[in-house]
What does this fold into?
Amino acid sequence: MKITFLGGTETVTGSKYLIETNSTTVLIDCGLYQGYKNLRERNRQELPFDISKLDAIFLTHAHLDHSGYIPVLYKQGYRGPIYTHHATKELCKVLLMDSGHIQEADTRFYKKYKLSKHIDPQPLYDSATAEKTMELFKSVDYSETFSIGDIKAHLQSAGHILGAASIILEAEGKTIGFSGDVGRSDDVFMKPPEPLPELDLLLLESTYGNRRHEDSDPFTQLADIIKETIKDGGVLLIPSFAVGRAQSLQHILATLMKEDGIPRLPIYLDSPMAISVSDIYSRYQHETRLDKQDFDKMSAATTYTRDVEESKAITTQQYPHIIIAGSGMATGGRILHHFKRLLSNHRTRVLFTGYQAGGTRGAKMIDGVDHVKIHGQWIRIKAKVEVMNGLSGHADYVDLMNWLKQSSLRSTMPIQLVHGDPNALEAMRDHLRQNTLYDVKIATYKSTITL
It folds into this structure.
């Protein structure tokens, strides 16, 4: 059995792992590259394998850095099955179509204002292609075994977001684990990840391989930031991932208001995608830590602005308020329109609540840049930029090591580290080598290993 690393290596985006046996070829995850331009350019490069020989795609979860390249394969002729959890299938329908829609809108904008270096810029795919892609999805339960050729596999809950899974694959006498993105044991919203079975190889994510999560209580931290925003008479802008983060924020805000931790003030979820995702989370409430009353409380506390006119109407709000809008790294979405309007106002606060990949607007703003470029225009930043790390959906290096200890892994099992920036990967390798007997290596782009 051969594994080729086609993404998620020395970076946190573009996850793709090609598995080849004597008779079967599958792809584990099929993500978009995001962040730095040199990485995004890989989205336009041809994959180094014959798509006509690809038998199936196994998908760990719905985030675009794991799923967002699937419609590109569809455009290139892929018509095989895509196996994933039921909730992931529903989330992908929302995320992939939104991704296609954003690409269409950005392309129209670049053409209209001649902002592209290309004479006729084209999207990677459009929303219609994303919708057709959904016909290929085949959803399964956790622990349900499914087979393609001589490969057997099953999913087990990884925490992180709704439907997120680690994939356990068996073929040619070997068992391989693909961690996917691993959640935290103390997440405010999701249940902890399930321990792994005995494996011959583990591909382990390392997003937080060099960091610990803050011990601070996210409820208290968010309450303090809101009180300061109210004191300044400003607006709190929260760029948010539509899946997981937006729902956690709604839960915390609703709880704070109910318990008088903050004054009651308008909260806008200005993201059609996040609104749809919240509905999906509500239907799969049993997969989370919350009960039905919690979800009802979240909905009652939040104003959902689905269409453009409702979003524009927020500009007439004169009193302190909170706007949650996509995207989480400020790479697109409605948050950019609010940035253009409010970043130059010193009363504004911007709160980043999740990981910011290098090269994104979010990463640049956290680093303290004076200006950001939005839709071809440089916007001066006078707003206060805050960071809240307590809501990350990723396990940190201590969480990951505890997860491995709870699992049924043999002491000298080989590990290939993936899905981390270079510093995080190096640190994670050092942590594991110092504290375990695992044979730890860092996967590199387009490298191949054989079991």
The chain has a mean pLDDT of 95. The radius of gyration is 21 Å.
